[in-house]
Amino acid sequence: MARGRNRVEVPEARDAMDRFKMEVASELGVPLKNGYNGDLTSYQNGSVGGEMVRKMIRAQEQNMAGK
Asked: Which of 63, 65, 55 is nearest to 16 (CA)?
């Protein structure tokens, strides 16, 4: 997957984040692939990133609530 300017705070998590991104894209029906994805719209790419953030926040909130 292209690394671009995005930075992973915990380098050991890079592969897991890439898998998570592909999983979310699949759930949303966005045809994300390894490598170049310049043929996708900003809306498609943004929907993947937005859903990733929502899922991470939900998981953290559940963790903080002890669930």
From this structure: 55
Q: What is the DSSP secondary structure assignment for residue 13, as one 8-state letter?
A: G
0.85 exceeded by the pTM?
no
Torsion of CA 18, 43, 41, 35, to 10 degrees: 0
What ranges make up the beta strands (E) of 1-67?
Answer: none
Q: What is the pLDDT of residues 15-67, one digit of tens each?
A: 999 999 999 999 999 999 988 999 999 999 999 999 999 999 999 999 999 87
Catalogue the long-range contacts made by 34-40 (C-beta closer than 8 Å, 24 or more residues apart).
34/1, 35/1, 35/2, 36/2, 37/2
